[in-house]
Amino acid sequence: MTATLIDGTAIAADVRQSIAARVAELSAATGRKPGLATVLVGEDPASQAYVRMKGKNCLEVGMESFSYKLPADSTQEEVEGLVRDLNAN
């Protein structure tokens, strides 16, 4: 069996380009940019890095990025309330 070499960087670039085109179409049709909201509870460094990368990826494809940070001792009701507010937007 022969191994197949996959160029992940090229595939990712193609996916980003496709998403950027779809974002542009949606923005033109609606007059609004689509967006992604992230909710970070606490100060976990890995989670912070993940959220930063999501924001960077959104900007690369022309999307809005909204980041909300809550303290680690936030209650479930507080987190759910924020998510409800974001869903209503």
In short:
This protein is α+β, with helices and mostly antiparallel strands. It is built from three helices and two strands; from the N terminus they run αβαβα.
Structural class: alpha+beta
CATH architecture: 3-Layer(aba) Sandwich
Strand composition percent: 15-25%
Order of strands in the sheet with most strands = 1-2
What coarse outline follows from CA principal-axis ratios?
flat
Q: Under the CATH scheme, which class?
A: Alpha Beta
**Unreliable residue stretches:** none
Task: Break the fold down into its secondary structure elements and pairings.
Layout: H1 8-30, E1 35-41, H2 45-61, E2 64-70, H3 76-88
Parallel strand pairs: 1-2
Characterise the protein shown here.
The chain has 89 residues and is α+β, with helices and mostly antiparallel strands. It has a single domain (8-88), classed as Leucine Dehydrogenase, chain A, domain 1 (Rossmann fold, 3-Layer(aba) Sandwich). It is built from 3 helices and 2 strands. α2 (45-61) links the parallel β1 (35-41) and β2. The protein starts with 7 loop residues before the first helix and ends with a helix. 1% of the residues are buried.
